[in-house]
DNA sequence: TATAAATACAACCATTTGGTTGTGCAAACT
DNA sequence: AGTTTGCACAACCAAATGGTTGTATTTATA
């Protein structure tokens, strides 16, 4: 966890080693997430057309699971993976916040310019 | 670059080593981006309250620059950094696409259920 | 029952990541 | 002119990342 004060606000960042941002950082994992967003697949199915050993795929699956981006259920000898798309909410929220701060910047500038004009 | 066929679509993924997803993968870099979204800062200012050596900060700045998430301009002895928030569009697009595929999944299921009901 | 399929577990490896310290150098302030 | 400030560059380091191969185990299928 990171805590600091910035712009008169107490900023608290939960820094889990495994989070959604880390899940989507790797291009292969992004492909896997999009494959799974069409429906659940087992590890072998996920690996189709991904030029990589099954073990490599399994490692990415493991990371995605640890990040909470997918859930896994045993089904006989298969390991069925399902995307937890709602976890992407966190990413959307962060991006939205950044954009908000960005636009506020220009609003402040606008207000300042208007104030100056009045005088 | 990764090219493969999935669900009757030719899927092309540009895999630059440095992309926006990598930029926002690290919690410290996310803090830096949000600091910069309030306005331009030099490296020393960015480092304030981030319990880390200036060199560590500089490395993050370098990565953010390589990812195209920030632009830098020399101003005397200062290196002024500015966020390129529009680059976050790429993240939004990817998340939106994933969500779309996700919801289509249920729409398809709905259609199937309705078809079955009719008979 | 033998075989194939799906996956888990482990060891290994090169590269990257995320930090550190130390040195040097030009710009700006006193 | 001397000192501080802002930063670049380099070397170093432990840990994580993203891949590999080999072996074992369980579950289906022919």
Automatic annotation (TrEMBL), chains A, B:
The HTH arsR-type domain, residue ranges: 10-103
Entries under SUPFAM superfamilies matching the protein: Winged helix' DNA-binding domain
CDD domains assigned to the protein according to its UniProt record, in alphabetical order: HTH_ARSR
PROSITE patterns: HTH_ARSR_2 (PS50987)
GO MF: DNA-binding transcription factor activity
InterPro entries per the UniProt record, alphabetical: ArsR-like_HTH, HTH_ArsR_DNA-bd_dom, WH-like_DNA-bd_sf, WH_DNA-bd_sf
Pfam family, one: HTH_5
PANTHER family: TRANSCRIPTIONAL REGULATORY PROTEIN (PTHR38600:SF1)
NCBIfam families named among the record's database cross-references: HTH_metalloreg
Protein name, as recorded: Regulatory protein, arsR family
Organism name: Parapedobacter indicus
């Amino acid at each position: 966890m990171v805590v600091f004060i910035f712009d008169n606000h107490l900023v608290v960042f939960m820094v889990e080693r495994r989070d959604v941002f880390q899940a989507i950082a790797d291009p292969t994992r992004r492909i896997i997430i999009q494959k799974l967003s069409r429906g659940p697949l087992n590890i072998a199915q996920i690996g189709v057309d991904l030029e990589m050993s099954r073990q490599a795929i399994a490692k990415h699956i493991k990371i995605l699971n640890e990040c909470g981006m997918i859930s896994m259920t045993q089904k006989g000898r298969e390991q069925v993976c399902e995307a937890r798309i709602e976890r992407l909410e966190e990413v959307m929220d962060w991006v939205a916040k950044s954009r908000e701060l960005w636009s506020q910047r220009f609003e402040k500038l606008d207000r300042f310019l208007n104030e100056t004009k009045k005088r």
